[in-house]
Write a structure and sequence with these properties.
alpha+beta; Transcription Regulator spoIIAA; five-stranded mixed β-sheet; 4 helices; 5 strands; 26% strand
């Protein structure tokens, strides 16, 4: 099985996803929502949820080498205080805290 070596432009993907969810983040009564759904938005197996000022990155494909770029992309759209990345249980990758 060939591995996909195409670099992901996380900033472009996160910017597009954030813009699509503008009604959610502009509504002050909503503080939890899915920021990014990779199957539909460009990174199969990656899901990012926002819980108030924290973000949880859940990934099924190993993106550990890209977490710094992804973290920075998230911080460029919202001042998250905590960002936690965790490999999905099916990938057998351990959790990693990506502190901003």
């Amino acid at each position: 099985m060939e591995q996909d070596t195409t670099a992901v432009n996380w900033q472009a993907l996160i910017n597009a996803a954030w813009a699509k969810r503008k009604p959610l983040w502009q509504d002050t009564s909503i503080d939890c929502f899915r920021v990014f759904h990779g199957y539909e938005e460009g990174s199969k197996g990656t899901v990012i949820e926002k819980f108030n000022d924290a973000a949880i990155i859940d990934y099924k494909t190993d993106i550990r080498e890209e977490l710094a770029d992804l973290t920075q992309a998230l911080l460029n759209v919202f001042p998250f205080k905590n960002i936690i990345a965790k490999g999905h249980q099916s990938s057998r990758v351990k959790s990693k805290r990506a502190n901003p």
